[in-house]
Amino acid sequence: MGWRRDSWHLLVSLLLLLGCVFRRDLAQTDDGGKSVYFWETGPWGRCMGSDCGPGGSQSRAVWCAHVEGWTTLHTNCDQSLRPSNQRNCFRVCDWHKDLYDWRLGPWNPCVSVSSRTSGAPRPFICSGGEEGIQTREVDCTLKSDDSPAEDAICEYFETKPRLEQACLIPCPQDCIVSDYSPWTSCSKTCGTGLRNRVRSVLVPPLFGGSICPNLTEFQSCKLGPCAGPEGMYSLRVGAWTPCVLPQTRTARQAKRRKGKGQGSGGAKDLETKELIQKKRTRNRLNRQESSSWDVQVGYQTRDVNCVHRNSSSVPRNLCTPREAPLIIQSCVLPRDCQVGDWSDWSPCSKTCSDSKLPGGWRERRRQVLQFPTGEGTECPTISEREPCEPQGDAVMPCAIYAWRTTEWSDCRVDLLLGQQDRRRANLTGLCGGGLQTREIYCVQANAELLKYVSDFQEKDKAARPVENSLCGGPVPDRSQLCQLSCPVECQVSPWGAWGPCTFESCADPSAKKGFKLRRRRITNEPTGGPSNCPHLVEALPCDQPSCYDWQLVGLERCVPVEQKPCGPGTQLARVRCIDSNGKPVDESLCSSTPPPDPVACQVPCSRDCVLSDWTPWSTCSQTCSSKTVEGKQMRTRSILAYNAGEGGAMCPNISSLQEVRNCNEHACTVYHWQTGPWGPCTEDPSSASLNATSAGAGFETCSKGLQTRKVMCVRVNVGQVPPKKCPDAPRPSTVRPCQLPCKKDCIMTPFSDWTSCPDTCDAAGNAVKTKQYRKRLVIQAPSNGGQECPEVLEEERECQPPQTCPGFRWKSHKWRKCQLVPWFLRQDRPGAQENCGPGLQTRAVSCRQLDGTQVDVSECLQLGRSMPALTQRCQLPCQDDCQLSNWSKFSSCSADCVGVRTRKRALIGRSKKKDKCKNTQMYPLSETQYCPCDKYNAQPVGNWSDCILPEGGRAESVLGLKVTGDVKECGQGYRYQAMVCYDQDGRLVETARCNSHGYIEEACIIPCPSDCKLSEWSNWSRCSKSCGSGVKVRSKWLREKPYNGGRPCPKLDHVNQAQVYEVVPCQSDCNQYVWVAEPWSVWKVSNVDLKENCGEGVQTRKVRCMLNTIDGPSEAVEDYLCDPEEMPLGARESRLPCPEDCVLNDWGPWTRCSLPCARSKGRIRTAYTLRSPSAGRMCPDTAEEEPCGLNLNCFNYFYNITDWSTCQLSPSAVCGQGIKTRMLDCVRSDGKSVDIKFCEELKLEKKWQMNISCVVECPVNCQLSEWSPWSECSQTCGLDGKMWRQRSVVQASQGDGRPCSSPMVQWKPCPVRPCYRWQYSAWSECRVESVVCGHGTRYRNLTCFVSDGSGGERDSSGQVDEELCSGLELSVDGDKQIRLKEACMLPCPGECYLMEWSDWSSCVSICVKDAGVDFGSVRVRSRAVLAQEPENLQLCPDQVWESQPCTEGECFEYKWQSSFWPNSSRPFIWCQRSDGLNVTGGCLPATPVMDDSTCNPPCFPPTSYCSEAGMCMCEEGYTEVLSTGGFLDQCAPIPVLEIPTAGDKKGDVKTSRAINPTLTTTTQPGRSGRTWYLQPYGPDGKLKIWVYGVAAGAFVLLIFIVSMIYLACKKPKRPERARQQQNNRLKPLTLAYDGDTDM
């Protein structure tokens, strides 16, 4: 292969070389010998120039270039073809923006994307719509004349708008019609006629859909032969001609002159009389009206013809003679409404400038110059308005409104208390977290009032309040949490011991009076300082006082006299000089008092009795002495060794081993200073001048003052004694300085503006007196003697009644005389000489105010009320007509419901003598009717309302919003049910007819919320440790759970859910309880030497746990309170020394081990010899040592800090600021808590903070606003009207506060009012007077109906008097164009004509349900054709339909349905809409093909057909799925297998779903290759043979592939020689391996 690679490289090199040569030749010339150089241009530069407009110029670069892209000399290019490098341009300036703009053309029709890209539309199945593109033209134009301009001018300011956009082409919508109606009866009663059945259009054809089919189907009918000749001719009346004015008299006189001699002069003819009367009438009425009410009466005529059944005209004499219809009548000449020019725009209703506020409105009007008469066009709108903004520099900025608040009220804790706390008798002294409130009001904020209200010092500077609705934005908080400092109670320590008797003042010891003092200290500083604590010093009078005295520290060892070894001796006292407070001082201060003398003692000899030292004196049994009580002290000693019989000092008896002495012999007369409470702070006269100066400088009038209190000397248990009984030194002060509270004057807002006076008038148009109000608010309440607030905070006054009540009404004037058709037009008619017949009369209409003052008619037109009719038909009776008077009023009723009432009329003039007028059936002279029945039935309707509490409670002003605490939200209220009143005919009437105010009231209860109730706190338990830090617990038990929205319970114990615990650390004094051991008992010698009284023995003593006080152990307590490890021994075994033995005293205490503990260190204890032994005997060691073992006799100490306690509040607090505490404990290295002094002696570091502040969340109850006023009724009439009111959350609940109660919205029914409405009656039949057919008129009436407004089946409508609808606008279903008559066509016999319009179809959405595509909604109505004669079918008019858009149309689906005809196997197939309506059109055209093949059963599944063999088969692309019976069940689509070709880029696609199996692959866009439709099943439902062949081939191919893979992957067998060589190569590695697994 190497030569091939080299050859390939050589070939490539040759080709490159040839390309270079060819390119070189091409650089000189092309095939035609032309130069390959050409001119290249750059983009045009910016338009430059000194002036704006078309005088600018712009340039560009021009150079000569080669076809390969490189630049060359200009001489190489043809100079004659050189482009220009400069041109004129339009220089755009900024002010051109107002002159030029883009002109946007309309969007062109939507064009399919596929047809636009490929040039020809391709077939596709429309599913909802096809994507398309629509374009438009966009040009830059000059605004003034719309002339075109360069696009660059407009692009300078704005990017060119887009020229095309995506759109959706709807699918064609075919016409859809309903089912046929039943057949009509035969058009003839004899002979051959027609029957018709019609259908209506449901959906019109849209977007190119198929047109509607025939709406009428005809069928000939023949009921039988006619007995006589058929009526062939009919009299048909034509339409009235347009109304025209008759000729003027001048024209008629000119006509008469041509026919001279006709007529006779003399008396005036009827026409002349008529003209004179008309002129007089016009002159009289013109004084009441303007030219805009010009009503002209003309005349109109019509033709009467005789027609054949085939619609052809025939002579008049062929029609049956009958009374001729009227062919001429009076009419109102139609005149269109004429309006004047628009007035100027009114000033903008918004008079200030602020873009954030909504804009204003401006209006303009135009006058009506001519009102429409006859059939003239109605008037257009005579007023219009548009939004506006005030323009000009002089426009002031709008007033800005802002919220202001009063000062916060005092902090109140009682607002946070729950129900359980409120029941406590004493709520004084509460402290901690509280709530304070304030009022909120709205003011106009401007530059002068930007300061906050709290800065105001004078009430006239406060802003004037306005209505709260003017303020927007967030409303300030109306309440906030606050903190009321809790008073800290003074805590003192226990009394200390009495001190020595000392002078009252050591500085003046000359006084003879002396006192013993005892003191206690403050352990917790109280609020207000130490002066609020109880007395800290108590005094006791004593004799022989001294300021300094000797204190006995101890006694030296007993030294025998005369240096003898034993016998009597003395002990020297170790003393120190102390002052009255027990502090050591210089001994020279005690020189006036001799020190204690040496104490006599006895050193036992070897044969003497040995006694122990005296114990210390016990605590005095009394603190003082009286006649009955004396204080005693005791001390004891014990026998350590007995004497040696004779020759030794004898041991004393037992009584001598105990000594008692008196103590605290002073009398129980204890004195102390007692203080009274501090008085009020009064002004200090010495600082009055300074205070006055400060107040004058404009500062708050706060000054310094003085407080005094009473101080007296008190004897304990006696009362006040003279002051000399108490020592002067600790006497408390009686005066202290204080801060006088600042005076605060009342600050108020000015009065608000008076509320507007409503223009209230009654129904008669009389003004109703009303009141107007104004208010002011207290911003700062007075305190500390400040200026008080005025009592009047609200004022009211009577409103001035309006001079004219607002409102306008139409006033109609009297009808004019009935005007007939002019005589010269009707003189040829029969009976024309008589001035009688039908005519027309007119009247004037004016607009009045409610007080009757005439105003311009435009005011009444603004009300929207219909203008009264200006004309009406009238009848002037002829001589032969019967003339009757008007009906009288009905007579009064004698009894309701059962009585009758009558009215009468009479014949007038000659009619009294005419017989035909006396026919009472034709001309009744009286009418009788039953009296109105006033029986009414009242009954409840609707549901009960919410339970509504009576009005009252907290008032919320329009000018101020305030929160004053809980509002009563429970208790007894009322619920309401509407009452409805019906008359005897079941018609709704006013509820007052039933003597009802419109409601049934029923008492109801809104349950009051009950808070969670807990027990009181239990007492604190004992501290869990008797020494050091422990915990103490108290708890509350659940007594009652909350209900009805009461305050929830705090978090309960997770075990029993019923107890609330509070655990705090506590500290126990380790010396609070001490073990006290009594002296050892006398020895009980077990091995008694009767002679010697010595040997082994036992001593016992009683050990008790006692409460330790400052004076020593006082009383015995339970032993568990003392530390058992520290309990002294109650018995000891030892050897009682024999005579002449050495006797030692008891061991002294062990010395303390030095820290840190180590075994190398030790501790010792010592004893000394009390009795020396005799000769030859030795004393034991007087010292004992042991090593210091950690946690045995040597301990390390460290501080231990406890956890924080829960947040502790004052007992008078509910929440707020509290304190968390923790304790510092001294812990021994073995884990035992010991007295804190052990750590303090080591001076260990204390780095912890023991107290921190904390906050307990306050239980703030939910605060709701007041109920809003009741809304307007949801319906103006009817049964279902409701009124609503609502409230909002002012303060959401916090903590364990009571949650917001529901509901936030309440409703109650409105009083039921009847719903009156104008309603048309049904159109009458088409009336053509006395003839058979032609143009006629049909009529309908406008009547007043009453209903209950429900609109359902229960809505009982009934006709009532028109007076009840007199206050309504004259309109029917919102249509103000009242039409009570209209032209109609009565078809002549045999004529083919259009039916009346069908009802509007239901609103249908043009949509595709699955695709979610909607093209709007439409409704349609149609007119079908009705035929009567088969011969006239060719003359029938075309059917018509019309559609209009609608809203909220329903999206329907259309599906084929099938069923069998009775007694037939052939199915009946029809299209059905998804709402069950059978239709024609709408279903897809994939209808099953019904042929004449005999498939049994028929082929129903879609895409199936009956084959020639009589079997149901599926179309191409679908496979048959058979049922268990062997019949075709359904046709399933077959997957498409795409076999890609070489050019197919989608070769990785294996399968896809067939889009349309009927389309060939060449017609499917974007698909290349072939598509095979593999059908594995035959017509019988079994697999075809080729499927088995393919399966077998696939199996063989699989075996082959597996075999090849096995052979390819099999390891080849190597030759033996090669294996040996390989083993030889591996051998050195094998020998090198030494068995080490880490290798």
Can you describe this structure?
The chain has 1639 residues and is mainly beta. It is 8% helix and 31% strand. The chain has 12 helices and 108 strands. A 5-stranded antiparallel sheet has the order 14-12-101-100-99, with no helix packed on it. Strands 19-18-16-90-93 form a 5-stranded mixed sheet, with no helix packed on it. A hairpin with a 5-residue loop joins strand 104 and strand 105 (1528-1533). The longest helix has 27 residues, at 2-28. It is elongated and about 195 Å long. The N terminus and C terminus are likely disordered.
Q: Please provide the count of β strands.
A: 108
Mean pLDDT: 78
Please state the structural category.
mainly beta
* Helical percentage: under 10%
Low-confidence stretches: 1-33, 118-123, 261-267, 449-460, 689-700, 953-966, 1487-1492, 1536-1573, 1615-1639
**Beta-strand percent range:** 25-35%
Radius of gyration: 63 Å
Dominant shape: elongated
Main pleated sheet:
5 strands, antiparallel
Instruction: Determine the N-to-C terminus distance.
Output: 47 Å
Quickly list its features.
5-stranded antiparallel beta sheet; 5-stranded mixed beta sheet; 12 helices
Secondary structure layout plus pairing:
Blueprint (H helix, E strand, L loop, with lengths): L1 H27 L8 E5 L11 E7 L2 E5 L4 E2 L13 E6 L8 E5 L6 E2 H6 L10 E7 L2 E5 L5 E2 L1 H5 L8 E7 L5 E3 L13 E7 L2 E3 L12 E7 L10 E5 L11 H10 L11 H16 L11 E5 L2 E5 L4 E2 L13 E5 L5 E2 L12 E2 L6 E6 L2 E3 L12 E6 L7 E2 L2 E6 L13 H4 L9 E6 L2 E6 L19 E2 L12 E6 L6 E2 L9 E2 L10 E6 L2 E3 L12 E6 L5 E8 L3 E2 L6 E5 L1 E7 L19 E5 L6 E2 L19 E6 L2 E3 L16 E6 L7 E5 L6 E2 L4 H9 L7 E5 L2 E5 L3 E3 L13 E5 L7 E2 L22 E5 L2 E3 L13 E5 L9 E5 L10 H4 L10 E6 L2 E5 L4 E2 L1 H7 L7 E6 L23 E5 L21 E5 L6 E5 L29 E12 L5 E2 L9 E8 L6 E2 L13 E13 L18 E10 L4 E5 L6 E2 ...
Parallel strand pairs: 16-90, 22-26
Antiparallel strand pairs: 1-3, 2-5, 3-4, 6-9, 7-8, 8-11, 9-10, 12-14, 12-101, 13-15, 16-18, 17-20, 18-19, 21-24, 23-25, 27-29, 28-31, 29-30, 32-35, 33-34, 34-36, 37-40, 38-39, 39-41, 42-44, 43-45, 46-49, 47-48, 48-51, 49-50, 52-54, 53-55, 56-58, 57-60, 58-59, 61-62, 63-64, 64-65, 64-66, 67-68, ...
